[in-house]
Amino acid sequence: MKSKNQTSMINLKLMVLSFFFLLVLYVILRSNYSSFQPIRRSSYPSFLSICNKIPPSLATSLVHYATSDVIPQQDLHEVSRTLRVLEKKSPCNFLVFGLGFDSLLWASLNHMGRTVFLEDNKNWTKMVKKQMPSLEVYHVSYKTDIKQADELLYKGNSEECKVVGDPRSSKCPLAIKNFPSIVYETEWDVIMVDAPVGSYNRGPGRMNTIYTVGLLAKNKEDGETDVFVHDIERKVENSFSRFFLCDAYITEEVGRLRHFNIPSHRTIASSHTPFCP
User: Fold this and answer.
1) How far apart are CA 15 and CA 13, in angstroms?
2) Residues of the chain with CATH 3.40.50.150
């Protein structure tokens, strides 16, 4: 007889697979509908001529989650919130901090868009790239310690940290300048902050990551950037996201996920726009 924990795990996995299958079906139907043109019966020899295969990236994701014993870190409600944004914006530029069991999911939800992952664990990066070669992954490093959080939050209140611009030219000690150039040179439509490690008083923490993401969004050439911060029940994620991504830009909180919609400060009429309105 299966234990209650085994039964609940199986039920959760079935829910995730069902959700993912419906998502794939939706993506296929949407792409077919958007490109559909009336076809005369005489213009095709058989039904097969108007059938489309499942895109390889989606097929790989289905196989992965159907045969894996693990489930994504975020729950159904949290994933669904990001899905609603990607439904409107994909294909788009999607930047994800962290590699995890949900990486294939994010890449699939942004089908035909560009999804980039940043990960600081070198061994984990190599393993994931070997198992999932289709993912665009870059290894990065962080120089901070989560124990510096209070000190960095204090420094972040200085005037030099309230200047919006390219993080590489910022004088703020929280700005990260050693990311791959693609991070700074791409206009990101959606950003997910779910790394680096910052729990149980260990790891680099997400202090500088959150600040740098705020600069990337506000320094965007035009338009808005949807930013998601996960694990907001923790002190650093909660305080730093509210301070540097701004309370005024919060649109919703679902579970442990906080959603910000940040406009470009370069296109706002006034040149005296405050760092946070």
Assistant:
1) 5
2) 76-263
Say yes or no to pLDDT of 3 above 90: no
Q: Can you give the pTM of this predicted structure? A: 0.80
Query: pLDDT tens digits for 76-87?
Result: 899 999 999 999
Q: What is the pLDDT of residues 195-251, one digit of tens each?
A: 999 887 889 999 999 999 999 999 999 999 999 999 999 999 999 999 999 999 999
Domain covering 76-263 assigned CATH 3.40.50.150 in the classification = yes
Q: Which 3-state string (H, E, C) describes the chain?
A: CCCHHHHHHHHHHHHHHHHHHHHHHHHHHHHHHHCCCCCCHHHCCCHHHHCCCCCHHHHHHHHHHHHCCCCCCCCHHHHHHHHHHHHHHCCCEEEEECCCCCHHHHHHHCCCCEEEEEECCHHHHHHHHHHCCCCEEEECCCCCCHHHHHHHHHHCCCHHHHCCCCHHHCCCCCCCCCCCHHHHHCCCCEEEECCCCCCCCCCCCCHHHHHHHHHHHHCCCCCEEEEEEECCCCHHHHHHHHHHHHHHHEEEEECCEEEEEEECCCCCCCCCCCCCC
